[in-house]
């Protein structure tokens, strides 16, 4: 039976691109066989949304608040 390992990260703050780089790096080292990383945060910068496709792992950002500059 196939399965997927998904890493989760919770941040109660605004997510920036440098933070995203740190989170992805730390999670890929901590859970190397994860197929997806889900990040739940308060809000995220436009650069963070633009960067999700540049990682070797699938990254999903779930923001509670939408910031106007992220649209």
Structure description:
There is one protein chain. 28% of the residues lie in helices and 30% in strands. With 71 residues, it is α/β, with parallel strands linked by helices. A three-stranded parallel β-sheet has the order 1-3-5, with helices on one face.
Main attributes of the structure:
2 helices, 71 residues, single chain, two-stranded parallel ribbon, alpha/beta, 28% helix, elongated
- Helix segment count? 2
Largest sheet: 3 strands, parallel
**What proportion of the residues form beta strands (DSSP E)?**
25-35%
Overall pLDDT confidence: 90
Topology order in helix (H) and strand (E) letters = EEHEEHE
- Assign a percent range to the helix content: 25-40%
- The general outline is elongated
- Rg over CA atoms, rounded to whole Å, is 12 Å
Poorly predicted regions are none
Report strand order across the widest sheet.
1-3-5
Structural class: alpha/beta
Number of strands: 5
Q: Characterize the quaternary organization of these chains.
A: single chain
**N- to C-terminal distance:** 39 Å
Task: Give a concise summary.
The protein is built from two helices and five strands; from the N terminus they run E-E-H-E-E-H-E. By secondary structure, the chain is α/β, with parallel strands linked by helices.
Q: What is the secondary structure topology, with strand pairs?
A:
Elements: E1 6-10, E2 14-15, H1 17-30, E3 36-41, E4 43-44, H2 46-51, E5 58-63
Parallel strand pairs: 1-3, 2-4, 3-5
């Amino acid at each position: 039976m196939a399965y997927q390992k998904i890493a989760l990260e919770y941040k109660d703050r605004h997510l920036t691109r440098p933070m995203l780089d740190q989170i992805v790096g730390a999670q890929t080292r901590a859970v190397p066989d994860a197929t997806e990383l889900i990040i739940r945060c308060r809000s995220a910068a436009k650069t963070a949304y633009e960067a999700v496709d540049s990682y070797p792992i699938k990254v999903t950002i779930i923001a509670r608040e939408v910031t106007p500059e992220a649209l």
